[in-house]
Amino acid sequence: MDYTRFEKARIIGARALQLAYGAPPLVKVPDSISDPLALAELEFNEGVIPIVVLREKTAK
Predict the structure, then answer these.
(1) pLDDT tens across 4-50, in order?
(2) CA pair distance 39, 58, nearest whole angstrom
(3) What are the residue ranges of helices labelled H in the chain?
(4) Residue 30 domain-assigned?
(5) Which structural domain range is residue 20 located in?
């Protein structure tokens, strides 16, 4: 699924908040990453974030 830039920002932001509050990472964390936002972006790029976007169908 292709996400809009707004959906991507919301998903990464929500996951970064979860990580900041102590949620376990879903990928192996490289030593170079200590920022929750960077880790959330890595998880997003790996496709492992368990957040789903529901969209309403628009009439054409």
Answers:
(1) 999 999 999 999 999 999 999 999 999 999 999 999 999 999 999 98
(2) 34
(3) 5-20, 36-46
(4) yes
(5) 5-46
